[in-house]
Amino acid sequence: MKITWSWLGEYVDLSGLTPEQVAAGLTDAGIPVEWMEPFVTGVQGVVIGHVISAQPHPDADRLRVCEVDVGQEQHLTIVCGAPNVAALQKVPVAVVGSRLPGGPIGKSKLRGIVSEGMICSAGELGMPVRLMAKEQTDGILVLPDDAPIGKAIVEYLSFDDRVMELELTPNRSDCLSLRGVAYEVGAIFHRTVTMPQVTLQDVRANGPAVSLSAEIDTPHCSAYAAQAVTGLTIGVAPIWMQMRLLAVGVRPISNLVDITNYVMFEWGQPLHAFDYDTVSNGKLVVRQAFLGEQLTTLDGHERALTPEMTVIADAHHALGLAGVMGGANSEVTERTRTVAIESALFDPLQTRRTSRALQLRSEAGVRFEKGPDPAAVTSALARAVQLMCAYAGGEIASTPVMVGRDLREDAVQEREVTVSPARVAAFLGVAFTPDELHSVVQRLGFQAFDEGDIMRVRVPSRRFDIAIEEDMIEEFARLLGYDRIPATVMEGPLTPGKLTLRQSLRRELRQHLLAAGLQEVWTYALVSEQAAQKALIPSDHPLAHMGALQNPISEDRRLLRSTMLLPLLDVAQYNANRRMQDIRIFEIGTVFHPYRLPMDVQPAEMQVLAGVLTGHAYAPSAHGDARKLDFYDAKGMVEGLLQRTGIAGQVTWSRSQEPFLHAGRSVDISVGGIRIGLVGQLKSAVAKAYDLETVFYFELEMDALTALVKAELHVTELPRFPSVERDLALVAPRDMPVQTLLDAVWGHGGTELREVTVFDVYTGERIDSAHKSVALRLHFWHMERTLTDDEVARYMEQVLAAAATFGVSLRG
Amino acid sequence: MIEQLQALQERALARLQEVAANEDLARFENWRVEFLGKKGELSTALRAMGSLSAAERPLVGQVVNDVRAALESAYTAAYAQCLAVVQLRQEESEALDVTLAGRTPFVGAEHPLQKVIRRIEEIFVGFGFTVEEGPEVELDYYNFEAMNFPKDHPARDMQDTFFVGPDLLLRTHTSPVQARTMEKRHPQVPVRIIAPGKTYRRDDDDATHSHAFSQVEGLVIDHGVRMSDLKGMLLAFARQMYGENQEVRLRPSFFPFTEPSAELDVRCIYCGGSGCNTCKQTGWIEILGCGMVHPNVLRMGGYDPAQVSGFAFGMGVERVAMLLYQVTDIRQFYLNDLRLLQQFVGLIR
Asked: What is the CA radius of gyration of chain B?
């Protein structure tokens, strides 16, 4: 919302205040002034001139030599190239020594004739030409005939008026009008507000009269007021009005339209003027649109209406979309002599839905959506009538029409809010005095009545945001100053601050991975439609079933990720493309698994710890022993995490079937038959799609880890007797998983077998190609005594016998 | 005899010097055997004492012991000195270029947004808060209605929303965790929670906007909670987060779920309040929105606003991180360029 300093000063006494003070005051009170600057800057010394004559230049077809009176003794000779310059015009003249936004003006010689200055266009003056009519911006700016010769243009066109942009929060739509801002400034600076005193007048005795009536035939309009004005002459609005509208960003159009806009800014009440002669029988009906009804709006678009939209119509067809935009069929034109001015209250919700459905945003729509002040409806109408009579030669042509709720000023109910000063003190932690509270009420222009321990505050309808005691508490606090609130220490019982197990585990595992040299990343949860396909996840795979946004901003961010694989590979690709070789990244992120598509209930949201590894196992150094990562590095990384969680002993490993993983180098991680994660090398085709070479991926489900985590410990007593170690060199079928062998060892090694380690696996020249050698070390100990060699030998025999059943023998 | 012993000592010491000059540890042993061994010269001399008279024996014995002590200490010193020289020579020959980098491990860094969240969590956990979490795909009810945004209310325009299904959306703020916590805990007090998490708005990504971002929400409900408590709590927070001498100020604002509402500013962390470009010459930087919990929100959460009151606050994590680390483009946080993220290695706080 933009306002100007001079315009604001029409309604509230600003004497002794600077614009800077007012801007600071508004900002401190919760209406931040985003910026403040003069309406037009960079103009100095430009004055109004009267073109006495304009003769063709003897040596140039397009130039004219003008004699211009700028109120000095001597007329000036000015050479002008604008085609529209003509004798008897009033024009802005940049005399020698003046300054324009483009630079200073000096004498210049144009084809042999000295020009003593320059006649200016709107653009040269730095005016907002984007908002101005073509006639005003093509060629020089022609001023009204009554413009005073010699007067400074800065003053005449209010260039030095200060424009302020207010950043309004949604609750303060009362400040979508000069009136609202004036009351706010009045409250902040203890000033009185004076709005123009206008009341609706009846038609003059023996004056022209037309028939005007209105009817509300919908629940979506609570009040409708209108009046006809006739004898109008369509022209331009007074220059000060045009300048104010330009300053607040509104395009001046004609005196009638400008007046409705001016009054809307003044009172916050949108108005509309219908060409009375287009309204059949002078009867306006507010109703819902018919199915299939069409209306061409003022912007020239043909709109298909629906029964959810409210229209203003006559007996035959719709004339306008209520509260949103007028229709072209009833538009005010140059031939208009009589108008019906409408001032009404339309349903905010309805207006909002209609402007959304048609994607039509207008100043009127914005104000109706917030619900204007019922008390301003008739004042705004009366004000518009008054201005049309004053600036468009109009005359009242009908009695004021009012249907719907009673809008007479005393009939609009003030709201009553009960305030307890004791509660104000208890709520804010600062005890304002009763006098202070009363002064705030008075500054706001409200009324208060004491009743025992409470105050009854009467809130006028313009402040519809104030409905409950807390709203008044905020008024007290902000107008007496938030700085008055002290900083206190909370009372009440002490509470232990702590993290949940899940949160602690997350931190623990994060720290573990950081120390293991993985960089944490944060990726977007939204991925592209093609993401799954790029990672070779087939369309019938559960991970390809991702929830979709109904209103995405781009196709790249349309689906809710089902796996961390997709965003992490994107990060790896991004970095690989920037010549990074060693990419070791992880994220603890949310993945979304919808129950049904399209989603109609919340999906399962799961936190997953996932990582991508590619490049070297250790940072390459000068020492010549760099090595590329392999599967066992990746698996070891996961084993480290499982150890850190205390569940390494509970997991089982089995070949993974995931389509994006290498069939022979990937493994599912399960506990109790339920998969809790996986780790493996990516298929080379997947790696290639992301510009990567050998790359590994792992993931673990955080919820599963949290459920299994070792959160308690009772230590096992240490053995007091020496342990016995035995090494076994075995020959096993080459494709037999070592785990099978280990299971057999554990199954038959007896109760004193405590540890088994695999310390070598060999395939190669020294063994036939169908077999591999596996070296195991077994540790036995007894808690109560030293084991005898015989006992251990018996266990070893049992182990060997069991191994033999799998075709495993001692290496000869 | 005594003269002989003294001559022996002189000879032995002269030999020891020769041995030492050779810097050969094996010759020391030869010397020791020759002079101090069981069959060495000193032992031989000692055995010869048997032929001495009883009067001479103690005198000569004393001399023998003195000579032995002198030789042994000379030997120990010379040996140690030689050993040091020999070892040093050996180590010199094994010397490495120690300025060459070691086998440096990879070191990861916490993501800057995570770092900020952790710092905020640690501060509030220290104040007796617990950490709550909520779903990112949220029901319209928790995201809006329970937060006092009625359907079709213009306040919803403040937050452009991604929808995923009927009444199903990506949460636009972490505030629904307030509603869920109240629903779970009511009518118990005190409630003292913070809720960090990811949030989404339908904004085009640019240097200052991101469709995905993070917030930390805070909620306190108890008997007699005052707005001054809000200010005190956030002052304590600001001092831990932004420096011991921090000051705060509240400015009136609006959020549907708080009344009164405020923005909280701290003294500019760059200029300290004298005015600079970061604070746009105001000396203050806005760090969060806050306010007293709106009675409608309390009521919908199952609390009676006549019995309890509360305050809430919420801050944008990216904004804090941008301020602290001078990141100028919010997209940097989600681009995950390792060259940027690795700069955070070694940042302790």
From this structure: 41
| CA-based nearest residue in chain A for residue B204 | A553
Which residue does chain B place closest to A424, by CA atoms?
B226
Q: What number does CATH give the domain A213-411?
A: 3.50.40.10
Of A428, A519, A600, nearest to B338 by CB-CB distance is: A519
The whole-angstrom distance between B93's CA and the closest CA on chain A is 19
Task: List the domain boundaries for chain A.
Answer: 2-39+162-189, 44-156, 213-411, 415-484, 501-708, 724-810
- For residue A131, with 0-12 CB atoms within 10 Å meaning exposed, 13-18 middle and 19 or more buried, which class applies? middle
| CA A211 – CA A276 distance, rounded (Å) | 10
Report which DSSP code applies to A803.
Answer: H
Give just the sign of the alpha carbon dihedral A496, A501, A502, A503: positive
Closest CA–CA distance from residue B265 to any residue of chain A (Å): 12
What is the rounded CA–CA span in Å between residue B51 and residue A797? 74
For domain A415-484, say whether CATH 3.30.559.30 is its number. no
CATH number of B112-344: 3.30.930.10
Contact between A494 and B128 using a beta-carbon 8 Å cutoff:
yes
Same fold for the pair A2-39+162-189 and A724-810: no
DSSP bridge pairs for A377: none
Positions of E strands within A101-236: 103-104, 108-110, 113-115, 117-119, 162-166, 213-217, 221-230
CATH of domain A724-810: 3.30.70.380
Q: Which of A556, A547, A502 is nearest to B212 (CA)?
A: A556
Cα separation values, A100 from A46, A64, A154, A721, Å? 8, 21, 11, 101
Burial of A141 from C-beta contacts in 10 A (0-12 / 13-18 / 19+): buried
Class of domain A2-39+162-189: alpha beta
From CA A595, how far away is CA A597, in angstroms rounded? Answer: 7
Edge-to-edge order in the sheet of strand A33-38:
A2-4, A162-166, A33-38
Using the structure block, give the residue that is written with the tokens 């709201």: A415
- Say if residues B142 and B111 touch (Cβ distance below 8 Å): no
pLDDT tens digits, B86-102? 899 999 999 999 999 88
Query: In 3D, which of A781, A794, A793, A784 has the Cα closest to residue A754?
Result: A781
Give residue-wise pLDDT tens across range A207-258.
788 999 999 999 999 999 999 999 999 999 999 999 999 999 999 999 999 9
Q: Which CATH class is domain A44-156?
A: mainly beta
- Put simply, the answer to whether A600 touches B106 (Cβ < 8 Å) is no
Within A577-676, where are the H helices?
A: 631-645
Q: A501-708 belongs to which homologous superfamily?
A: Bira Bifunctional Protein; Domain 2 (3.30.930.10)
ipTM: 0.88
Residue B137 has pLDDT above 80, yes or no: yes
- A619 and B232 in contact by Cβ < 8 A? no
Torsion of CA A602, A608, A614, A619, to 10 degrees: 140
3-state secondary structure of A453: coil
Q: How does residue B65 score in pLDDT terms, banded at 50, 70 and 90?
A: confident
Written as one letter, the residue type at A389 is: C
> Which is nearest to A509 in space by CA: A414, A644, A387, A415?
A644
What the block records as the tokens of A717 is 């007593």
Find chain B residues with C-beta within 8 A of A492's C-beta: 189-190, 222-225
Helices (H) and strands (E) in chain B, counts: 12, 10
pLDDT in tens, A587-601: 999 999 999 999 999
What is the C-alpha separation between A204 and A258, in angstroms, rounded?
A: 25
> Do residues A776 and A727 lie in contact, with contact meaning Cβ atoms separated by under 8 Å?
yes
Between helices A178-189 and A19-28, what is the axis angle to 10°? 90
